[in-house]
Amino acid sequence: MSKRSRRRWRALVVLVICLAVVTAGAWVASRFIDSSEILVREHCTAIVGTDSFRLAPDQAANAALISAVSLDRGLPARAASIGIATGFQESKLRNIDYGDDAGPDSRGLFQQRPSQGWGSEEQVMDPVYAANRFYQELEELVPDFENLDITVAAQRVQRSAFPDAYADHEPEGRAYASALTGHSPAALNCVLKSPTEPGDAAGMSAALQDQLSSAQPQMSDDGRSATIPASGTRGWALVQWAVANADQFGITSASFGGQGWVRVDHGWAPATGTDGAVTVTFAGP
Hints:
Blueprint: H1 3-36, E1 43-48, E2 51-55, H2 57-72, H3 77-91, H4 121-124, H5 127-141, H6 150-158, H7 170-180, E3 188-191, H8 201-211, E4 218-219, E5 225-229, H9 232-244, H10 246-249, E6 251-256, E7 259-262, E8 267-270, E9 277-282
Antiparallel strand pairs: 1-2, 1-3, 4-5, 5-9, 6-7, 6-9, 7-8
Helix pairs in contact: 2-3, 2-5, 2-9, 3-6, 3-7, 5-6
Region (Disordered): 199-228
Protein name: Heavy metal transporter
């Protein structure tokens, strides 16, 4: 073999080794990223038809609360649409403890003012109280709310300095309400990282019953799963409530009606089970 051939051969060997090192490094890096979930951007999405609306997990949980309280009061899905749209406009669906120039004492999901008779500051900072108080006013002041534009109904309750602003959030209000009242099955999905702590089955059960008093979660002996008797649209409402609250309570899966949401898979897929109960599982210790 000539010197030139030997040099070419050595260059080829070095090139192959370099490519192998780069490939191995890329594989290790990809495995590290997968295992550490660095690239997972946590969010929840409601999809109805061709429309898709994204919220942060805590916002989705508050939308689920507003919807659950409407169901607890026996109201139609339209009420949940109004409530969610109003909450988004007033607080971005967050339970904030401050107001603005127009209402310095405004507080909570609906920015209700203690000075205007909405309740004490402690009460309006309780999201379940605040949602019930909103719906109480809606039922009393706007008995024909099902026949009105969302922004009109919301304004009659809130008496805002910006009466047309609620219209900006009608689409996402309808999308989340449709999913969370069970009228759009498997329409709400949350993309979440793996839980860092054991799931809180007892906390989930207490929160659900606080928001929807007729729900009756049945816990397993080991606290790793729960079943909630339900059928039809109520079952779809409850399973999507669980998905919206998965981040808060360490829920790893929720299924109903032949469909299941799986946290590690970041979405819904066919699942076994009956139509008579929602099944929820939690992260272990």
